[in-house]
Give the backbone structure.
Amino acid sequence: MIQRKPLPSVIKFNQLLNAVTKMNHFSSCLHLFKQMCVVRVPVSEYSVNIAIKCCCQMSRTNDGFALLASCFRRAVVPDVYIFNTLLDGLVLEDRILETERLFKKLIKHKLCEPNVVTYSTMIKGLCKVGNNDIAIGLLRLMDERGCKPDTVVYNTIIDSLCKDKLIEDAYKLFSEMVFAKDIQPGCHHIQLSHSWPL
């Protein structure tokens, strides 16, 4: 593809990057991304996000941050999807304090408007280290900022509460989700609810 003249569009390259990534050939995808940069294919936010995702999946989130720096040099404005990928990479590597710092930086410096995935990823990280109270606080902040929590967000916290044997708190949050927020539970929640007294 790289030898073709004229070069295929960035869309065609992105389709190839995406296909290679879906096959879990992360290092091959990164090699192709580097080749795109060498021959000066104008990469997009989508291309960079795929490359960063590959780094994160290989537990090389620091390399993902290096790619983020290259965004600025290439005049590619990082979007919420790029930041979500980096947050997820940090969580996968159990670097929760760094995840929290990046999350706060996104909000403080208005680098992007956090979406439900941004909040969900941060909540997943907090729950992973047992910070359920902070996760619930973030759930409240999310709601205040107009970002509607979904089943995944609630499920993450409810699951963490159950693992910490805080069943009553988990049930209260489940009730809030179903009755106050009108969010339908998934199969996981229905199984849990059978063991709770009403």
